[in-house]
Amino acid sequence: MSEPAPAPGGRRAARREAKPRPRTSVVGVLGELLVTAGVLILLFLGWQLWWNDAIMASQQSQAASSQSAEWIKQDQEAHGGAPTTPADPNVDYGEPVVDTTEYANGEPLAVMYVPRFNAPGTVDSVRTIAQGYGLDVLNSFELGVGHYPGTAMPGQVGNFAIAAHRSAYGGGMHEIEQLQLGDAIYIQTKDGWYTYRFRDFEYVTPDTVDVLAPVPHHPDLTATDRIITLTTCNPLYSTAERLIAYGVLESWQPLSAGPPAEIAADVARWEQ
Fold it and tell me: 253 forms bridges with which residues in the sheet?
């Protein structure tokens, strides 16, 4: 009996099945490792810039809320309790009280609250202002905003100059470019509330330090106004230049009078 003829293409199929698998090269393995490392780096950067930033922002806001509540409590104890009625915005409290305390580096001296910086539906833009502008202040889980030593204090004639990150480490001034003419910048100290109104922006190089002068850019002039200067890096995720926001003091009221009426409900939420 003759053997059955092989199926058409059988030998070719056998040769295909017997074809050896390609050998993995060192270059291929190295390429895969580099791709994996790149993905891990991107994930780390994402954590650092967004997730870690969000965590620090929340902690800084909570710490500032606690600092505000502590000063309010101390003032109430000194004046026999909380005010029974909201402060009358038409009352003239005279010249602003200026804190003359010599603060050490990293010591809290004020709280900043800018409603324009709030995330929708929150009052989370409150931050503690401490003396100094080093990383121990700006990168702190409890602080976040630094006061330039040698510049004016809140309410004082001259330039109350402060700094904060715009991105990462809580981003105390992340939304600074959203400020609009007339926006309020509230500063609270152990003595009272100081309401500044935003006036304008300026973009400068990092070495333009005369923005901190009592009269910005004119260090030879004598100050007559009470201004606030907010400084931060620009653009986002870069230190190529500085974004400066200026404001002018509109009013002040002692802590015993309660917070400004516009933010009284917000301040109450901080204490919850």
Answer: 193
Amino acid at 66: S
Taking the C-alpha atoms of residue 248 and residue 199, their distance in angstroms, rounded to an integer, is: 7
If you write DSSP's letter for every residue of the chain in order, what string do you get? -PPPPPPTTHHHHHHHHTPPPPPPPHHHHHHHHHHHHHHHHHHHHHIIIIIHHHHHHHHHHHHHHHHHHHHHHHHHHHHTS--SSPPPTT----SPP-----PPTT-EEEEEE-GGGPPTT--TT-EEEEE--SHHHHT-SS-EEEE-TTSPPTTSSEEEEEEE-SSSTT-TTTTGGG--TT-EEEEE-SSEEEEEEEEEEEEE-TT-GGGGSSSTT-TTSPP-SEEEEEEEEESTT--SEEEEEEEEEEEEEEGGG-S-GGGHHHHHHHT-
CATH number for the domain formed by residue range(s) 48-270: 2.40.260.10
CB-CB neighbours of 183 under 10 Å: 17
- pLDDT at site 91: 80
Token output for 94: 């005279």
pLDDT tens-digit map of 82-122: 665 556 667 888 999 999 999 999 999 999 999 999 888 88
Cα separation, 130 vs 113, in Å, equals 14
109 in Cβ contact with 128 (< 8 Å)? no
What pTM value is reported for the model? 0.81
pLDDT band, residue 1 (cuts 50/70/90):
very low
Rounded mean pLDDT of the chain? 84
Domain borders along the chain are 48-270
Structure tokens at 240: 């190529």
Peptide bond into 235 cis (omega under 30): yes
The dihedral through the CA atoms of 113, 116, 118, 123 has a sign that is positive
